[in-house]
Design brief:
90 residues, mainly alpha, 0% strand
Length: 90
Amino acid sequence: MDLEEENRKKRKQADLTTKEWLDFFFFPSSSIFGSNFFPTDDIQDQQVDRFRRFGFDKKQKQARQARTYGLIFYILLLLILIRLIDIYLM
């Protein structure tokens, strides 16, 4: 196995960087809602396409997980805010 193949194999098995993970977490896909609420959606879609094109399956899976966790985070945040407003108004 030459050096180029070894580097290619390492890149395929690499994890998302912290910055990439946080980008996917805090700016989940707007295509779920059918609007362009998150301006970074095009960049993230390009990243996911790049992961798919080059066979970075691990990064693709982690990006999907980060988006899911981000959506759950925002839903829970919304529910907490609604509950706090409800308590405050009573």
